[in-house]
Amino acid sequence: KRANPAPLLALVSRPPPHRRPAPTQIDAHDAAPMSTGGASLVRRALEAVRRTPRWQKRLVVLTVGAGTLSYACQDNRVLQISDGTGGKKKVVILGTGWAGASFLRNIDTSLYDVHVVSPRNYFMFTPLLPSVTCGTVEARSIVEPIRNIVRKRGGAFRFWEAECYKIDPTSKKVHCKSGDGTNADANGEFVVDYDYLIVTVGAKPNTFNTPGVAENCHFLKEVEDAQKIRKSVMKCFERAALPNLTDEERKKNVHFVVIGGGPTGVEFAAELHDFVNEDLAKLYPDVKKYVNISVIEAGEHILTMFDKRITHFAEDKFKRTGIDLKTNFKVVKVSDKTITMSNPTTGEIAVPYGLAVWSTGIGTRPIIMDFMKQVGQGNRRVLATDEWLRVLGCDNVYALGDCATISQRKVMEDVDSIFRVADKDNSGTLSVKNIKNVLGDIYQRYPQVELYLKTNQMKGFHDLLKDKETEELNIEEFKKALAQVDSQVKMLPATAQVAAQEGAYLADCFNRMNTCEENPEGPLRIRGAGRHRFKPFRYRHLGQFAPLGGEQTAAQLPGDWVHVGHSTQWLWYSVYASKQFSWRTRMLVVTDWGRRFFFGRDSSSL
Ligand code: FAD
């Protein structure tokens, strides 16, 4: 279509004077008996043009020209967005959580044709989800619609509200299904092809196949979960307040059980405790004495990922405030009326409950399980990537956030190759100078080496050598020196912090793809030639919080800084306000906190 405008313009524009045909010639043509319909049409048009005043001709030229141009531009835009043409590679992102949204915020859309598929058309600030369960913060205050982000970025990417149910890395396609089934087949299915695929689908709650959990427990993963819990808490109170109930029945209705003593379970228990004591106790004075909140933990302690001082403070605080902490209890079955748990000393016991929240960790989504089988990772629990977030066993697919884990390369797997790379003169031994030359690359490629030195209060690589006077190291001595460093390989935690940093890192790599192709900035390739294009992903831990209720929060910041109390609660408020996705959600969250402070939490069972 874009090839046609030239003849069209030629038809209405005036021909150059020296090529203008003489009127007699045209008349002669007119007289020719064998002229076709098309030709006579052209002749009539030319005649009409000749008779038309000059200003009118200019107007027509201008209108048709501008129309054609705008059509061409519009056509171009559509093609660029939908087909990834115009030299842009097509990047498809699955998921709009912490990892996906962070990638989306940072990717340069002038370089890539970006498409997003997610069943959730919003980003959710998960750390405030427990606050939604009790109405401290409203659900809509912690979400940012993806369409707002599309608008803010000038419509530079496409979003489809649908679930991806199959990744096909061989044909580089993802199969998606929208819940609405609005296409011709009414099954809502469509296929999207990609040049690069960014998998950020997160994880699902893990029930460990415990019978009855899926049917009878609440989870705390999505906004809808938090809203359901809020409604159920109020239903429990209303049921316990009904007449003609025995004390046992009232107790059962307001027995709230949290299974799992990790940060989410603990925070929910603390929120609920505050809600009951600060608001519901005044509204349900007759029910108050029956309320019981239990936290059941299979391990010996709660909050084990925190410093021991925080764990002990939290356990003492819970006991003081009347939260029933049951450690060393494993839930084995949940029915609609009772939770059965076992303990080495008590054996199995069944307790009646009104509401149970299951928060024991995360499991792999079915789409990831299927994908893992396809790429030869079927025997693993989590999708593995390399240190550049590329999925192992397939090309051009990246995975980040809770759905994946970085499989850090071990030093001892590569030790022979490291030796060979360092031994530049092929002498079969390494001098201190040889090692120094590659030390920066080794630290970058294998962060466990630096971590090992730090953990063991060693100043440098030299401290790893038993015999510090050694001038030259042979391969065996080199292996011996490095033998223990892999003990420091750590899996990154499944947190928003990790997911967001991974998203930003990967977008930055994509934005500098061409530059780094020409000037690689990564460490030396130990098993190949040259350098890696990019530096590997490095996680920077910025600290963690555990709100414990009663306006007290535990904080553990880098540098072994641990603090619990009211002052850290204010730190928590300011950090979480500043971390909101936009000014809109920041204002909403802060006003929710203010509303709760002045008027208390809302107790309607909406
Ligand atoms: P998610 O944020 O879960 O996002 C996954 C996205 O993928 C979603 O948009 C989902 O709709 C989409 N999706 C799912 N299936 C598909 C599919 N088949 N196709 C396409 N899209 C799909 N971390 C912290 O660091 N600090 C905290 O204080 C903290 N508090 C938390 C409190 C709660 C209640 C919870 C549940 C988690 C908390 N976390 C916290 C953990 C943190 O939320 C997760 O680690 C983080 O959300 C992981 O990000 P993600 O992008 O991998 O996954």
Automatic annotation (TrEMBL):
Residues 410-445 form the EF-hand domain. The keyword Transferase does not apply. Pfam families: NDH2_C (PF22366), Pyr_redox_2 (PF07992). Residues 1-34 are annotated as: Disordered. This is NADH:ubiquinone reductase (non-electrogenic). PROSITE patterns: EF_HAND_2 (PS50222). Gene3D superfamilies: 3.50.50.100. It comes from Aegilops tauschii subsp. strangulata (Goatgrass). InterPro entries: EF-hand-dom_pair, EF_hand_dom, FAD/NAD-bd_sf, FAD/NAD-binding_dom, NDH-2, NDH2-like_C. Its EC number is 1.6.5.9. It is a peripheral membrane protein. It catalyses: a quinone + NADH + H(+) = a quinol + NAD(+); a ubiquinone + NADH + H(+) = a ubiquinol + NAD(+). Keywords: Calcium, FAD, Flavoprotein, Membrane, Metal-binding, Mitochondrion, Mitochondrion inner membrane, NAD, NADP, Oxidoreductase, Peroxisome, Transit peptide. Coiled coil: none annotated. One of its GO terms (cellular component) is mitochondrial inner membrane. Its main location: mitochondrion. Belongs to the NADH dehydrogenase family. It comes from the Eukaryota. It is an enzyme of class 1 (oxidoreductase). It is found in: Mitochondrion inner membrane; Peroxisome. GO terms for molecular function: calcium ion binding; NADH dehydrogenase (quinone) (non-electrogenic) activity.
